[in-house]
Every structure is written in structure tokens, then in C-alpha cells.
Amino acid sequence: EVQLVESGGGLVQPGGSLRLSCAASGLSFSSNWMSWVRQAPGKGLEWVANIKQDGSEKYYVDSVKGRFSISRDNVKNSLFLQMNSLRAEDTAMYYCVRGAWGAFHYWGQGTLVTVSS
Amino acid sequence: QSVLTQPPSASGTPGQRVTISCSGGSSNIGKNTGNWYQQVPGTAPKLLIYSTNQRPSGVPDRFSGSKSGTSASLAISGLQSEDEADYYCAAWDDSLNGVVFGGGTKLTVL
């Protein structure tokens, strides 16, 4: 059974930083593109970033470019999202997902990030 | 405002067939395949349709997808009460170099 378990969310002040983690099991992690997708409270889904199997290619939504960084550790089957210069509009549930081009077959349960003073 | 346009709401009665549209452009649905997600409030989204019309294992064949030009559609036949949820379309956008989602459609089973 595929499991994606996110952690690292919480309350942070505007301008602060957080590092999200996703522990993957039940899949060949190193063979898959991986992504982060977020959902603000009461709003729709927004893709945030994706990363190629070996980490050599990364793509980001414009609103997070220069502030967020996606990375992975294929030895530890883990995906990360380093979030800096956080803004109120980054408040959302962040989901770790398997896939890259819009077909996200597996989703974690999400970790909530709240940016507020 | 979302790159992909969906109607905010749709409804139907049990047993009925409902269709949800997703209008895009030449850089996303026009060139790439569409995907559909179902989200019951309070839970993570679930992939319903990928590559325009493929169903993941476990998704009933009541759900089907299609594409015409720059628009994609999700059809649900034999509507059931448990189909009441939010539905989102998604596709890769070659111009934005990213995945774009529709704004979502809230389906109500009357």
C-alpha cells in the first residue's frame, strides 16, 4: 500500500520559514516524479512544485519562485519543501503527491501551514 | 482566477447523468491530457480520471472522461448520493511550465 505522510506544518509569522517533509512508502520512490499541491482554507487546489526522479529538474508556480525550494532524498524515500519569506497567502493544507504533469495518483493526508502574526 | 474554467456548481438526482466541463486553452488541455479529481470535504483529493479518459483501479465505470479541442469533460452516470463532492480538472500547461487546476465544481445530489 502506498503511503505518503507529510509533517512539518504549523503556525509561523509572516516572513518566517518552515520545512515540510513527506515520508514515502509502498512505491518505488526514486522512480517517480513528485510534487507538492496546496489548498487554502475553503479554496481550490493549487500545484506548488514538482521534482524529477534524480532531482535534476524542478518546476514551481510563479507565486513561490525564489521563496520555496523542493528537494528529495531517494535513500530515505523523502520529499521536502523549504518555504522561506512566508506570506499570509501561503496559508494552506500542503499535500505531498506522486506525479508531475497533472495526474497525481497518490496523495498524503496533508500538513497545515498557517502564516499569521 | 483559474487558468482552467469550471462551472462552480452542478446538480442532479439519483440515477441521473451529470456532466462537468473544464475549459482551457491551446497550451494546456489543447496540447496535453486532462485529469479529474474528486474531493469530499475534509479529505484529500482522489484521482478519478487521468490521461483524458483512463480510470485508476477501483474507480467505478460510472465515471468517464473526454476531450474536445481545448475542453475536457467529466461525466457521471447513475448518480449516487456518495458522488456529492467537489470535482477538479487539471492539466500541464506548456506556457506556464506548471500544472494548472480548474476552480472546482461542487456537485449536489438532490
Task: Provide structural commentary.
The complex is a heterodimer of chains A (117) and B (110). Chain A has no helices and 11 strands. Chain A has 117 residues and is mainly β. In chain A, the strands form 2 sheets. In chain A, strands 2, 4, 5, 6, 9, 10 and 11 form a 7-stranded mixed β-sheet that branches. The model of chain A has no long low-confidence stretch (mean pLDDT 97). Helix content of chain B is 0%, strand content 45%. Chain B is mainly β and 110 residues long. At the A-B interface, β5 of A face β3, β7 and β8 of B.
Stretches of chain A where pLDDT is under 50 for at least 5 consecutive residues are: none
**Helices and strands of chain A, in N-to-C order?**
EEEEEEEEEEE
Radius of gyration of chain B: 13 Å
Strands of chain B, count: 9
Mean pLDDT of chain B: 97
Q: Show unreliable segments of chain B.
A: none
Whole-number mean pLDDT of chain A: 97
- How would a crystallographer describe the biggest sheet of chain A? 7 strands, mixed
- How large a portion of the residues of chain B is in β-strands, by DSSP E? 35-45%
What's the N-to-C terminus distance of chain B?
A: 28 Å
Helix tally of chain A?
0
Quaternary form: heterodimer
Proportion of residues in β-strands of chain A: over 45%
Shape of chain A: globular
Count, helices of chain B: 0
Main sheet attributes: strand count, strand direction, barrel closure of chain B: 6 strands, mixed
Of all chain pairs, the largest interface belongs to: A-B, 22 and 27 residues
Report how far the terminal alpha carbons of chain A are from each other.
Answer: 40 Å
Observed structural traits:
heterodimer, A: 117 residues, mainly beta, seven-stranded mixed beta sheet, four-stranded antiparallel beta sheet, 0% helix, B: 110 residues, globular
